[in-house]
Amino acid sequence: xxxxxxxxxxxxxxxxxxxxxxxxxxxxxxxxxxxxxxxxxxxxxxxxxxxxxxxxxxxxxxxxxxxxxxxxxxxxxxxxxxxxxxxxxxxxxxxxxxxxxxxxxxxxxxxxxxxxxxxxxxxxxxxxxxxxxxxxxxxxxxxxxxxxxxxxxxxxxxxxxxxxxxxxxxxxxxxxxxxxxxxxxxxxxxxxxxxxxxxxxxxxxxxxxxxxxxxxxxxxxxxxxxxxxxxxxxxxxxxxxxxxxxxxxxxxxxxxxxxxxxxxxxxxxxxxxxxxxxxxxxxxxxxxxxxxxxxxxxxxxxxxxxxxxxxxxxxx
Length: 316
Prior knowledge:
69% of the residues lie in helices and 0% in strands. By secondary structure, the chain is mostly helical. It has a single domain (2-294), classed as ABC transporter involved in vitamin B12 uptake, BtuC (Orthogonal Bundle).
């Protein structure tokens, strides 16, 4: 029980940013737009969240981290319009556009960091997110210490958004239209659904959620911004989308699995089975699992039928 009490909170702690970003990937790819740029969207969110936190910590006080992630969502959502214009309006190769987003976000972040702070990384933030105990629930035997003690509120927000995303995608007219343009855009267009509009909305939602994931990662784990703040988490989120079969709850489960893999290197000293495993193996485990998931070796996953195919009005 003591081992579980150390592993579960850490796994949930690492998985929250991946859940946010993976949900963004689900919205984008359900609409038919591949988003390789999740890494870049996380980088942009991390950069904006840290810079805003450092700049306005004295203005917003204890609310600074919450305002920071909200601003990061807005900026990353706007930034993702570049991918939307290239993929939807200009019908560019969506993979190439996503790679460009990754490179552009990292370049902008590092350039502005050096310009504003005179070095390759920012200062440590003074107002990060802190862990807290949930009143009453943290006192429940066994369950309380695992799920409600020393937890970040962003973890609960991630789980809530995963459930809300499932409801939106599968229980609302908006979700039906979004899934329709990802499966058969011509049929959706024939029934009066604006394919381009729906895909724009999905990509912008993807950007906002990716920015939320990046800013949460920066304000809970890294506490500053540098070229290595986001190092593969966006690709883990993309793998979670595929591993979760393009379903919000499946993506959440896959993200928690990857979060568990990330947490092993942190809690290994307290787990007897892992004490003798070389640290380097535990550090690379999340990336190996990401490669396996992206290679399709962990179960069969069928993407939305129109995923990655630009839509030209009047054609299939």
